[in-house]
Specification:
Length: 130
């Protein structure tokens, strides 16, 4: 099985940030390291998590946070639950890692993919599905 790789989609004209796409078929396919020019990143987590156990969602959250994710936007079926589980991972037992206090999460139920992307960006839904 081939390891997933990041695909550069372009640069946001508003923020100047580079935008990458990483598509994985299963949570275990999420890489343990990313090769991006920044220490931190934003993740649009588009996932049908209706039948996904809490332990799997927690593992994905921990992996993303460990890779440097500082903003996780959840979308797709059961995204509110995914968001809540990620927030529980962040809070943990009340002794949260200070670096994790700067992490933001949102959920976007019943929204089209295009509505979750920056309208000024040059990449489109078709770029994400290639």
């Amino acid at each position: 099985m081939e390891s997933p790789s990041l695909r550069h989609l372009g640069t946001s004209p508003d923020s100047g940030w580079d935008v990458y796409f990483l598509g994985v078929q299963t949570p275990v396919a999420l890489p343990s390291a990313l090769s991006v020019p920044s220490e931190h990143f934003v993740c649009l987590l588009s996932w049908n998590a209706q039948r996904v156990p809490v332990e799997t969602i927690s593992a994905v959250a921990e992996r993303l946070l460990g890779l440097g994710c500082v903003y996780i936007c959840c979308r797709g079926r059961d995204c509110e639950r995914v968001h809540d589980v990620i927030d529980e991972v962040l809070v943990g037992d009340g002794n949260a890692n200070v670096a994790w206090l700067d992490v933001m999460t949102t959920w976007h139920d019943n929204e089209a993919l295009e509505d979750n992307l920056d309208p000024g960006d040059s990449y489109k839904k078709e770029d994400l599905l290639k």
